[in-house]
Design a protein that fits this description.
The complex is a heterodimer of chains A (about 110) and B (about 280).
Chain A lengths: L1 H34 L12 H6 L3 H29 L3 H19 L1
Helix pairs in contact in A: 1-3, 3-4
Chain B lengths: L2 H21 L4 H11 L4 H25 L5 H21 L5 H21 L18 E4 L6 E4 L4 H18 L4 H11 L4 H25 L5 H23 L3 H23 L6
Antiparallel strand pairs in B: 1-2
The chains are: A mainly alpha (about 110), B mainly alpha (about 280).
Chain lengths: ~110, ~280
């Protein structure tokens, strides 16, 4: 029971942190965009760092979206770590299966 | 986007966030028609933005549901790969199968679940502490009654098949899998309604990640629209769990049955070529 609460605590911490981070970055980006609107085309991943350096508001927004997409993956990793510490290897395996299935889906 | 349109998008997505987070659905089925039919966005933009909204709906509410102990994380993580593999299979099968017939078949399944949820009382199974299911026993304190609810999970194999089918459905029809997973957990596996909707809400974020990453990498997520949708959904998803706190599990189950009927009606309209989503 104690271990279940710990699992809950870490997983919800990751979810909340991811949410706050992505909300903050997306909100700042949208604000910048409203102040100086421009083309709103999506930015390819490899050009994102460069565009961020240029201070592009759309790049800031895209970074926030990226944080949002990563959050569910981060919570799978967090759960896997807690399962590993608790020596619940069945569920470490289940967590890895989740990540493997997503990777498979993306590659196809 | 001008300010009026932005306000419209925020409101529409907040509504989707409330409904989605209350019932463990992604909310895409609400966002897409509101964006296309209601606000005049193009279908391909709406799909990209709505997938981001689905992740927001899950992430926004799950933090709270998990810390309240309502989410059965272990059960969720067993069902997630089944759903994802199901959606891959679904995307391939979609090419060979008639979408209209498929939509009608799924609508029939949803209607039957709704009927079942109206007619039959909820049956919670007590943990039998045997087989693999013993690892999935869980408990939570009902926020409405203050009672501690302990439950076991049974029919895991059927539940995993249902997750696979739910994935199939989202792969083939683009309709989220929560609408299948919640009744499967509640009716077959003996998971109390409150835990079923919370666990489904928790799972949906991971299920949407695969699709969202593919669209993102291919430049099919319109940044400004998607971020606006995400912020609106976040606002709604932070309200959903609070509304649910004051709703009895039994009432939640009834409301869910109504949502099921509404969605199957939408799917039938769509299959007959009358819908817009």
């Amino acid at each position: 029971m104690e271990s279940e609460r710990r699992l809950d605590r870490y997983v919800s911490m990751v979810l909340r942190a991811g949410m706050l981070l992505s909300v903050a970055v997306m909100a700042i980006g949208l604000l910048l965009y409203i102040l100086s609107p421009g083309p709103a085309d999506s930015i390819p991943l490899d050009r994102l760092p460069e565009e961020l350096m240029n201070g592009s508001s759309v790049a800031v927004i895209s970074l926030g979206i990226l944080f949002l997409i990563i959050t569910p993956l981060a919570r799978v990793v967090a759960a896997a770590l807690v399962f590993a510490v608790d020596r619940e290897f069945r569920f470490v395996l289940a967590s890895l299966a989740v990540l493997a299935a997503i990777t498979l889906a993306i590659m196809l | 986007m001008d300010l009026l349109l932005t306000a419209g998008v925020l409101l529409a997505s907040a509504f989707a966030g409330i409904i989605g987070s209350m019932f463990g659905l992604g909310g895409g089925i609400i966002i897409i028609p509101l964006l296309t039919l209601g606000l005049g966005f193009e279908m391909k933009d709406a799909i990209g933005a709505s997938l981001i909204g689905v992740i927001a709906s899950s992430t926004g509410a799950a933090g709270r549901y998990v810390s309240e102990g309502l989410v059965n994380i272990r059960l969720g993580m067993l069902m997630e790969p089944a759903t994802t593999v199901g959606s891959i299979a679904g995307a391939f099968l979609a090419v060979y199968l008639d979408q209209e017939i498929l939509a009608l078949a799924f609508a029939a399944v949803l209607l039957y679940s709704a009927y079942y949820m109206f007619k039959k009382p909820e049956v919670t199974v007590h943990s039998r502490r045997e087989g693999f299911c013993r690892f999935l026993d869980s408990s939570y304190v009902d926020p409405q009654t203050g009672e501690k609810v302990e439950y076991g999970v049974h029919n895991l194999r059927r539940g995993l098949l249902a997750s696979f089918a739910a994935g199939n459905m989202s792969g083939m029809l683009g309709v989220g899998g929560g609408i299948v997973k919640v009744p499967a957990m509640n009716v077959w596996m003996g998971v109390p309604m409150r835990a079923a909707t919370s666990t489904s809400n928790f799972m949906i974020g991971v299920t949407a990640v695969a699709g969202a990453s593919v669209l993102y990498v291919n430049g099919l997520v319109p940044p400004v629209l998607a971020a606006t949708v995400a912020l609106g959904v976040f606002a709604g998803a932070s309200m959903g769990p609070r509304l649910v706190r004051h709703t009895a599990g039994r009432t939640l189950r009834r409301y869910f049955a109504i949502v099921l009927i509404a969605i199957s009606a939408l799917m039938v309209l769509e299959a007959l070529g009358l819908g817009g989503a």
